[in-house]
Specification:
The chain has 185 residues and is of the alpha+beta class. The protein has 2 domains: 50 residues, Arc Repressor Mutant (Orthogonal Bundle), CATH 1.10.1220; 116 residues, H-NOX domain (Alpha-Beta Complex). The chain contains 6 helices and 6 strands. The strands form 2 sheets. Strands 3-4-6-5 form a 4-stranded antiparallel β-sheet, with helices on one face. A two-stranded antiparallel ribbon has the order 1-2. The chain is globular and about 50 Å long. The mean pLDDT is 91.
């Protein structure tokens, strides 16, 4: 049964699923720990699958421990890590968005950064603000150190230029990257 939200959008459909008792036990415990219902937790899990997990093998992504990643980053110099970001921003960002969204739009690129890089890729936390003049500021806060910031700077700078023709302005710290995207004409 489809339930309509106040704004007329289809918001949910009621379905029934069977779970093995050990799986349901884990879901019950996790939902209680998080302070949400099992229904909400299953919704979160299914949303993650729909938006991310089903693409992991198709986009050749793998999960690694943050310490392994930071150790690898530390092996390179700051300029080398920036250049690696530039190189990967030209290829990985565009290829992943094309496969994932089937179109390269500003909305798709912002969603890629928010969801693939930050929310599901867990490389940082994402925040976005639209400015009064039409420009957009995004900030990624992370735990990869200064070299991680330089990587993100190169990756986003080149990714935005390559996919959308945008020359963004960057400001970095040891734990964050701010990217200012000029207003589109």
């Amino acid at each position: 049964m489809t339930v309509l939200a106040e704004d007329g959008r289809s918001s949910s459909i009621t379905r029934s699923f069977r779970f093995e008792s050990d799986v349901l036990g884990v879901l019950d415990e996790e939902a209680k720990r998080m302070g949400i219902s099992v229904n909400a937790l299953v919704g979160i899990i299914l949303r993650r699958y729909v938006e991310f997990t089903r693409y992991i093998s198709k986009i050749d992504m793998l999960v690694i421990n943050r310490e392994v990643l930071t150790s690898l980053i530390d092996l390179l110099g700051e300029e080398e890590i920036y250049k690696m970001g530039v190189r990967l921003g030209q290829t990985v960002l565009a290829d992943t968005i094309m496969f994932w969204k089937k179109e390269t739009t500003e909305k798709a690129v912002m969603e890629y950064i928010e969801k693939m890089v930050c929310r599901y890729g867990r490389l940082g936390t994402y925040d976005e603000r639209r400015m009064p003049g039409g420009q957009t500021a995004i900030v990624i806060r992370h735990r990869l150190g200064k070299k991680g910031s330089r990587f993100f700077e190169g990756y986003l700078r080149e990714g935005l230029k390559h996919t959308l023709g945008i020359d963004a302005l960057f400001e970095i710290t040891d734990s964050s990257v701010k990217c200012e995207i000029p207003a589109r004409k």
